[in-house]
């Protein structure tokens, strides 16, 4: 089948679109799986893959505490082995997402919103990477939840593609240009460079990927009237809650796997034990 994400493939798009939207509205509890790290079956792996093929994500719950090695083992069962590292991930590519704002004032990590208890606006992971080393999938695993707050909101990026294309196909054409969104170099990384790229791009397998952030600071969008209209349409869509946005408050030993969908995090308040999530990111899809 030709890629439905190419504008010239209108017949393929219509068939794919109908099948995709028929999956909604969705109860997020219907795409969740219970797992035992000591006994993950091939059937369970197939359920995970098939669910993500439909929705681009799945939630899970392990029956017991999960170590970093366990998380890597779980990902390897899905052929996710080469993780995408960042400034603050460990040697295994795992990032510990917790509030470090007060204890790391001298560490540049405290400048990054994920390492605070503040709300984190809509984005895809690694939007600041070029296409050739982009993040295609990620795992987010809860070791300890917050006392209050910290809910995750998630949105399949293929859904917003549909609404943009239906509204105006020219929007999709423009969002696939390589100069639409520029990320300035990271001042904390001497090897960093300005990165320009598309919002939507189609990979070598004909599948759709997205680079996006709602941040206004340090994000340079190409300036013209139609891109302003496109931005307004996207921001309106993701900020107005609808049946496609799912709410997920992760509990201990729970998490979700995703093909780098749009997601955000609400602010939270820590209890005696700080909120801690583990994150792994990969350069291939699930």
Entry keywords:
286 residues; alpha+beta; 6-stranded mixed beta sheet; 4-stranded antiparallel beta sheet
Describe the structure.
By secondary structure, this protein is an alpha+beta fold. Helix content is 24%, strand content 23%. The chain has helices at 10-21, 42-55, 68-77, 157-167, 169-175, 225-239, and strands spanning 32-35, 57-62, 95-97, 120-123, 137-144, 148-149, 152-155, 181-183, 195-197, 200-202, 208-210, 220-221, 246-248, 254-258, 262-265, 268-269, 276-282. The chain has a 6-stranded mixed β-sheet with strand order 1-2-14-5-17-3. Helix 4 crosses helix 5. The longest helix has 15 residues, at 225-239. It is globular and about 50 Å long.
Determine Rg (CA atoms, Å).
19 Å
Largest sheet: 6 strands, mixed
**Cα-to-Cα separation, first versus last residue:** 20 Å
As a percent range, the share of helical residues equals 10-25%
Low-pLDDT stretches are none
Structural class: alpha+beta
């Amino acid at each position: 089948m030709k890629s439905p994400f190419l504008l010239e493939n209108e017949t393929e798009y219509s068939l794919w679109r109908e099948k995709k939207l028929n999956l909604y509205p969705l109860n997020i509890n219907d795409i969740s799986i219970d797992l035992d790290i000591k006994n993950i079956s091939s059937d369970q792996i197939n359920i995970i893959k098939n669910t993500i093929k439909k929705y681009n994500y799945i939630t899970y719950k392990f029956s017991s505490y999960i170590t970093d090695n366990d998380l890597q083992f779980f990902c390897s069962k899905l052929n996710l082995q080469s993780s995408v590292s960042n400034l603050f991930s460990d040697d295994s590519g795992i990032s510990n997402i917790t509030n470090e704002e007060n204890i790391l004032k001298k560490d540049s990590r405290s400048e990054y919103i994920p390492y605070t208890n503040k709300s984190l606006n809509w984005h895809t992971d690694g939007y600041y990477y070029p296409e050739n080393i982009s993040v295609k999938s990620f795992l987010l695993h809860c070791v300890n939840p917050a006392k209050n707050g910290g809910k995750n909101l998630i949105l399949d990026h293929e859904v917003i593609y549909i609404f943009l294309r239906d509204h105006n196909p020219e929007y999709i054409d423009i969002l696939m240009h390589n100069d639409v969104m520029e990320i300035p170099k990271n001042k904390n990384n001497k090897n960093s460079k300005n990165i320009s790229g598309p919002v939507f791009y189609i990979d070598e397998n004909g599948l759709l990927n997205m680079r996006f952030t709602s941040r206004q600071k340090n994000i340079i969008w190409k300036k013209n009237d139609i891109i302003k209209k496109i931005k307004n349409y996207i921001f309106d869509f993701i900020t107005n809650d609808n049946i496609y946005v799912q709410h997920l408050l992760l509990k201990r030993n729970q998490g979700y796997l995703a093909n780098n969908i749009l997601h955000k995090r609400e602010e939270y308040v820590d209890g005696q034990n700080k909120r801690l999530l583990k994150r792994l990111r990969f350069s291939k899809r699930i």
